[in-house]
Amino acid sequence: ADVEVIHWWTSGGEQAAVSVFAREFDALGEDKWVDTAIAGGENARSATLQRTLGGDPPGAAQFNISRQFEELAEAGLLLDLTPLATEEGWKDFIRPAAILNVCEFEGKIYCVPVNIHSWQWAWASVPAFEKAGVELPKNLDDFIAAAPKLQEAGIIPFAIGGEAWQIGGAMGVVMLSQLGKEGHEAIYKDRNLDVAGGPEVKHAIEIFKSLKGLTDEGSANRTWNDTTNLVIQDQAALQIMGDWARGEFAVAGEKPGVDYACIAGPAEQPYLDTGGDIFLFPKQDDPAVEAAQLKMASMMVNPQVQALFNNAKGSLPVRDDVDMSLADDCMKVGLEILKDPDHVIQGAGIYLTQDSIGQLDDLWAEAWANPDLSVEEIQQRFVDIIASAE
Amino acid sequence: MAQLATANEGGAVVKTASSSGRKPFRITTLMSVIGTLPLILTAVGVFVICIIYSFVLSFTNSRIFPAFGPENFVGTDQYSRLWATGRWLVSVNNLWFFGLLSIVANMTAGYLLAVFMDQRIKAEDWFRSIFLYPFAMSLVITGLVWRWILDPNYGIQATVRGLGFTDFTFAPLVNASTAIYGLVVAGIWNGVGVTMAIMLAGLRGVDAEIWKAAKIDGIPTWRTYLFIVLPMMRGAILTAFILQCVGVVRVFDLVVAMTQGGPGIATQMPAVFVIQHITDRSNVGLGMAAATMMLLPVVILLGVQAFAQWRANKAKGY
Amino acid sequence: MTTDTMTVSSGASRIEAGPRGTKPKSLTFSRVGIYAFLVLAALFFLMPLWVMVVTSLKAMPEIQLRHIFQWPQQITFEPWLKAWDTACTGRDCNGLKPGFLNSVKITVVGTIISIIIACLNGYALSFWRYKGANVLFGLLVFGAFVPYQVVIYPLIIGMRELGIFGTFPCIIIIHTIFGMPILTLLFRNFFAALPPELFKAARVDGAGFWQIFFQIMIPMAVPITIVAVILQVTGIWNDFLFGTVFAGRENMPMTVQLNNIVNTTTGVREYNVHMAATILTAAVPLAVYFISGKWFVRGIAAGAVKG
Amino acid sequence: MTQHSVSIRDLSLNFGNVKVLEHLDLDIAQGEFIVLLGPSGCGKSTLLNCIAGLLDVSDGQIFIGGKNVTWEEPKDRGIGMVFQSYALYPQMTVERNLSFGLRVAGMKKDEIERRVARAAEILQIQPLLNRKPVELSGGQRQRVAIGRALVRDVDVFLFDEPLSNLDAKLRSDLRVEIKRLHQRLKNTMIYVTHDQIEALTLADRIAIMKNGVIQQLSDPHTIYNKPVNLYVAGFIGSPSMNFLQGTLDGTTFTAEDGTVIPVGTYQFTTPVTGATKAVLGVRPEHVVLGDEVARMPYSTEVEIEIVEPMGSDTLAWTKIAGQAVTFRVDSDVHLEVGQKLRIGFDPARGSIFNKETTNRV
Amino acid sequence: MTQHSVSIRDLSLNFGNVKVLEHLDLDIAQGEFIVLLGPSGCGKSTLLNCIAGLLDVSDGQIFIGGKNVTWEEPKDRGIGMVFQSYALYPQMTVERNLSFGLRVAGMKKDEIERRVARAAEILQIQPLLNRKPVELSGGQRQRVAIGRALVRDVDVFLFDEPLSNLDAKLRSDLRVEIKRLHQRLKNTMIYVTHDQIEALTLADRIAIMKNGVIQQLSDPHTIYNKPVNLYVAGFIGSPSMNFLQGTLDGTTFTAEDGTVIPVGTYQFTTPVTGATKAVLGVRPEHVVLGDEVARMPYSTEVEIEIVEPMGSDTLAWTKIAGQAVTFRVDSDVHLEVGQKLRIGFDPARGSIFNKETTNRV
Ligand SMILES: Nc1ncnc2c1ncn2[C@@H]1O[C@H](COP(=O)(O)OP(=O)(O)OP(=O)(O)O)[C@@H](O)[C@H]1O
Ligand SMILES: Nc1ncnc2c1ncn2[C@@H]1O[C@H](COP(=O)(O)OP(=O)(O)OP(=O)(O)O)[C@@H](O)[C@H]1O
Ligand SMILES: [Mg+2]
Ligand SMILES: [Mg+2]
């Protein structure tokens, strides 16, 4: 049967990755992968939700790791993957374990994680730092200390695009670099307001505010890859961006360690969150389609497919036993960190509703754009959001 | 009246039946109702029901999907949260500011262009097409291109600096306090052609003799345009104004494509707020509360107008 | 030019000294000003198009130089071919091409149906007003102010109940609904400005609701129909939101592919391809504007200007 | 009842609260040419539209050909209608304009052709049949509009100011044509106009309307010479009737300044007792000068104030008893402003109205 | 040259290739009331607009008050103009309508007030000064429009069909008012109309135009009684002049059917030699019946075809020498369709035209 898949993988690299899935699925037999690409996660997710509501759901749909689909599961609109997962023993090989927990709702599994992306990376232009005569920073405090020299050398110290999600993401990274796993979980998971109002958060906000002074005036509305391009061209020294930025450097022919450096954390003690993409399978009337959906789910976690897919996508696989010989240095660092569960955290999106995440994004965006907001005020509002989060 | 009596010689006839009886149901009325069935369905079935639906939803804590369970009703919580949300307040302010500025600017520019187009110029067709074509472009594209042009590193600023004016600064989108002007410029670029066309049609509809009278009175052309002709174009102005209002209230694509509401939340708009909350932010209840608030001014305006009309009709005796 | 005949007589002309004939048209200051203003305005309006065209003709390395107003040093039509034919929009790498026919189909059918319905509405509201018709019309105009997204959920549910969600008729109905307020307003104003005698004459002639509509009113409504066509073609062609939700997979319009090309968030941004795709997508409404711009103004004069 | 072609009984029509027509009765005989004459806004068109069925009456009944048609559709009433703005269907040729109604009714093709040919022949518009209305002159358009009523082969023709949009010359030509048409077809015609020349020349009977009420319904001669009230007297006649304000006592009329005008020759319709405020009306063409003055019951010496030569006659403005009076003389008579001369008139040819009731006495 | 208020020399005007006016000359004396009369499209408004400076002439000169104003701005020509559509500024009160031009010219406040007050007094519009145009009747609007010309205190008034939008009654009232205004102000007036009654009653001299050429420029009496050509003869007079086609030989006119009409009493302007195709024109009011017939050089027995009572007179249609003829009789005379009677006329009061040149002989 035909299984229509909605996803937002429309760029060159993504397209290659999604083709792996499609090829492998088609190769399984009579079933067929029907591709519906809609650029922009927001657009694609909306389309999935709305079509599901309209009674014309796709056979499979890409989502981010988050609580966005809880309600779909609650409403019984999703195919229950538990029997398949039990049979194939997903719990045994998918790691870190947290990533599968995301798919669990009231004891049942409703989705398939297919890759891991982490936000906690800083990308530095090696020539830029050399030109300014400073060492590559190991943490953010180092970086801020080195910034004046970079500026003197005519280099933009900190590259960022002014879109809310870039700012929010970067702030999350700054925050985690200060809080560590414990603090992170205390705030988002346990809603500990003391920690939220504590000195680590305050320092994180201070760093965040000083980063603002290190950007260029073109940052407003700049897309993230245009921003990355500044680092590639050595006009800017450092960008905080998720591991997907690696693809940009690769395409530009840059070599890790020589032309650019990836700094996990950025901190001496780096933590990585386990964002990434998942697929869920809306319930269908046709049993043939349902069978095909299960086949597809199984295919997606298949080790060979995982290897091919993640190599193409430049992301980390969801299981250990895959061949990642093609991975570059940065990726290998990431894989290494992921092996230690103590350094793996769950993104805020797991603990908070999309609504609260959005409120945080708004807060960081406002704090970024409005220098008049004091650190105390920002922190107070942060505490308020955490307090009111569901 | 004596003459009338003679006209009435057949008075014996049905004179007693002074009433002509009930008006029979006309097949044409039925046809009219049938013919406007799509209208009825749309007006009642879509707009009324949808608005009521949205209104009811705004009292629930619906997240992704509309939820009407008794446990979902949360009273006016969404409204209190809405008005405590900084971003919403900024959005509302922005809408007024953006709306007023862009409508005024659009109408002014549209009228000005129309006036210049009215000077029996050569190549009128060309100019008209040039002013109109942006309307054919979707706002998404408009936003994208203007983002480029206003980008300090690519666009006008960079180009002028490249010419040697290294101090030249023109980057409205970068600054939270000026970004909204960037939106206005792009909005005008997109929509002023239609305003111009409407105004031009209005200008051409003005009685030629008014022009002659003004010339004989020795009234300078610009004063004639401003003080005599402009007040005569109520229909054209109203049409353009309504079109503008609809566009402003719904402004979404342009903001998303140009600034994504930034820098910070400086260019957030109510429509963006609503749409984000009912889609990605998964808080339909709050989104619907915001949508209801957006419709409020329109309801008030229409209500006032209907009331005024009702009063006027009553005074006239309809 | 003097003549010596000073007596009053008809026939012979006695031209005297001083100005005669047409006032010499020196290229006056104001004339120059008018053209200067118009040309400047035109440049302002053309600037984005210029940027788009120029960018679409450059190769990527040249774009990275960031001189967005500069004519390409080396013209390449590659981006155009790519945008049309080979750009990837997800797994399929067929460019904009596949959506084109869908867009045409949706636009043509949607425009025709929505205009017929709006025309019918305007006609009925002008000539066959039944009780409550004006209230209905008021509600409709009110609907013009509702952001689309607000009414999407109920519409989805409604379409689901009708069993046509995600089909071609569904997207047509949606476009008809959202085009209705403005179009109905246009047609109503147009018909209201027609002499009512025409309608009366037709009634005396025995024509009924439909006969008057089809045989008398539709042929008269050409000017305003052109305005409606222009507005509706632009609106439907540029729609993205309804296309993704209501059209169904087989009927996805071109804008979905354009969005996929332009709004991809990862990977290298091929601005030249983006611009080429943008121009290609806008080509149809642009053509409509350039061809019928003259009638647009006339049509507006016929219908929209009278309050 | 059957002898009446059109009968209107107790007709009322309101637009909302505005009463345009109130308790109006009117009977029109078979073949009669009735003209509805009145100032703008008096309800002429409204009445015509009610007869045609284009407006729903508020109360009352309408009979056409003896049949109660109050609630019939316009097409079933056996009427044809011609409008001021011609109301030709702009996108159809003349031939299709004429045949539209017949085709709508599903009439046979050869019958349609026959009728169109006949109408075209009557109206002399055969060469125009393939043109569109924009290609016609005003007069031609009006002829086509009449043709459209003609082909319907109906008993009653309704005209709503059919000639108002035409220039004077054409108007008088078409007026004659309509008169000829009526003589030839002999069907009932109801004709609305505010041009009194049209009314006087065309009508068998004229209905003078004011504020939705018929003031007088009579043949043109009576209307012109024996107007029933001040309104009709002032409305009909151009230049209009001269009115002298004064008091009537028996057979003497005393103008406001004391001038006495003997009105013994006047035929009173209602006996007047005692002194009554009255208005004496004299038509400009009934004022005489020269030899004839001697034969008039009343004459006086006046000074000419304005002279208006109108080609065939000349109009002079002067004062009698301190009140403005115009009189008409043959254009051969040479008058000058400031000239003094003697004029006179016979009250028997004038009209006297009670000032309060405004009715003729 | 200075004695002329307005002089037009060799004026030509083209719209592109269309020549509307060609080599037109016209001299208007100080204080004269000139009416431009002609059918629609003959160029009357165009000529007026040229004088006002609203159109750029193609060739020729225009003098106003002895000054060459060919290239002057309208406001500097010393003219005021009144339009058919009134052209009042709709959003301004009457007072501001009157004063707007003066205020724009920067005139002193008390002078403006004085002028407005004077104009309002002359036109009797004082109570209307604070109203807006929409609140005025047609006649009041037209008065305000005249007032706007009045306040400009100019020598020359231009009127472009100022009364065409009014109904008949108002038209004749305002006509008299304009006449009075002229008598009072004594300034030059140029008045465009296509209503011949207006032309005949108002004008000192009438210029009859056709296709941009002045056909005849004379006082109303001459125009009416001695038209210079067939065109003027047919254009002036309502009902229009009867034309009999025939041949003129010496003092005998032989109609086409052989009927002989002696025209010995006619005063020829140009001697005619030999038999010439000619047209004999007789005005309807110059046809007599009854006793007077005997005194006429020509009389014949005719049958009445149509009778049009027009209130003050009656128009009858018949045939003389097989050609249609109308004649006017007093309304007292009772005529019936089909009635036979004897009528006659005196060719001395008629006009004879050369059929080829169409000029009067
Ligand atoms: N649709 C309507 N709604 C309200 N009032 C109306 C309507 N139609 C006409 N009237 C009013 O009814 C009255 C009579 O109008 P009607 O058209 O019958 O006048 P009329 O005698 O034909 O005038 P005219 O000579 O200007 O045609 C007028 O006062 C007019 O304002
Ligand atoms: N702007 C113009 N362009 C081209 N032709 C014109 C223009 N204005 C007038 N004409 C033509 O010039 C001729 C004279 O027009 P004009 O308005 O002077 O006529 P008129 O005598 O005033 O007629 P009316 O009695 O209808 O007002 C007409 O044939 C008209 O078609
Ligand atoms: Mg009427
Ligand atoms: Mg004219």
From TrEMBL, chain B:
It is found in: Cell membrane. Keywords: Cell membrane, Membrane, Transmembrane, Transmembrane helix, Transport. Pfam families: BPD_transp_1. It is a multi-pass membrane protein. The chain crosses the membrane at residues 30-56, 95-118, 130-149, 179-203, 224-249, 286-308. InterPro entries: ABC_transporter_permease (IPR051393), MetI-like (IPR000515), MetI-like_sf (IPR035906). It comes from the Bacteria. PROSITE patterns: ABC_TM1 (PS50928). Residues 92-305 form the ABC transmembrane type-1 domain. Belongs to the binding-protein-dependent transport system permease family. PANTHER family: ABC TRANSPORTER PERMEASE PROTEIN. This is Sugar ABC transporter permease. It comes from Devosia oryziradicis. The lineage of its organism: Bacteria, Pseudomonadati, Pseudomonadota, Alphaproteobacteria, Hyphomicrobiales.
TrEMBL record, chain C:
Residues 1-12 have a biased composition (Polar residues). It is found in: Cell membrane. The keyword Nucleotidyltransferase does not apply. It is a multi-pass membrane protein. Residues 100-292 form the ABC transmembrane type-1 domain. The chain crosses the membrane at residues 32-53, 106-128, 135-156, 162-187, 208-231, 273-291. Residues 1-21 are annotated as: Disordered. Keywords: Membrane, Transmembrane, Transmembrane helix, Transport. Belongs to the binding-protein-dependent transport system permease family. PANTHER family: ABC TRANSPORTER PERMEASE PROTEIN, GLUCOSE IMPORT SYSTEM PERMEASE PROTEIN GLCU. This is Carbohydrate ABC transporter permease. It comes from Devosia oryziradicis.
Automatic annotation (TrEMBL), chains D, E:
Residues 6-236 form the ABC transporter domain. Keywords: ATP-binding, Nucleotide-binding, Transport. GO terms for molecular function: ATP binding. It holds the Pfam family OB_MalK. It comes from the Bacteria. The keyword ATP-binding applies. CDD domains: ABC_MalK_N (cd03301). Gene3D superfamilies: 2.40.50.100, Nucleic acid-binding proteins (2.40.50.140), P-loop containing nucleotide triphosphate hydrolases (3.40.50.300). The keyword Nucleotide-binding applies. Belongs to the ABC transporter superfamily. This is ABC transporter ATP-binding protein. It comes from Devosia oryziradicis.
